[in-house]
Request: fold
Amino acid sequence: MALFDFLRWRRQPAFKEDLGAEGPLTAMVIFAHPDDAEFTCGGTVAKWCAQGWTVYYVLATSGDKGTHEAELSSQELAAIREQEQRDACRVLGVKDVVFLGYPDGFVEPDHDLRGQVVRLLRRYRPDVVLTWDGFRQGFNHSDHRAVGIAVRDAVYPAVRDHLYYPEDKRDGFDAHQVNEMLLAGADDPDYHVDIGDHAETKLEAVLCHSSQLGERSKDEIRKIWTERMRSSPGGRLRESFKRVTVRRSMRQQQPPGQEASAQPAAANRHAESSEASGPSRSRV
Reply:
């Protein structure tokens, strides 16, 4: 029996998932460590790839601290975990994975990290960015916080305004607008992806990260996940995120050749930086 098959009869009607409703999109999944994405959004990535999306991974570190094996060096562990991540990407259908090479545990949301993220966004031009919620409450890995903050700062406003990191344009990477973000690990998720048909693919991708799974067998992991899903509402197989929709700059909306007065421009800047109210999603 396939993973969670016995739960499918309990599932409620499908979630409303409007991202990609008009056709496949391009997504960039940006996390801190190998295996972050598989555990957090592996089902979503598998679903997107099956629907024809183009998905890229960006990882800030190679996970060079995540082991209890005393004989492994950081360099050896990094090489193992990079290969595990590439194997997981092949399982899911991810087009490419980029490792930024920051030391595990020491990522900072600084100018350099933000600039690297901006350059990659301008190069690959995704419609959707999926990353950590850097502002969640409670206990959280410092690398997760740093990546979430840096990516959000890159998406708004740096990537769309050409005077941020102008060397990108000289190298052929023009400014780009990212309109949609999904934040993983958020305290108040409002965008849910039904992964029922892709749970097996997610599991196979997770199992690629054998250095992180200890002595647990595939059957043991399957049992743990099955019990976890039994406790979810209606037994529905889902991955949940906080959705942030980025408004298009008023400068971009203005007809060519029409100059804005100083007063409307100030109002526009205020509108771009505020969050709209409403239960469905955040806007910036």
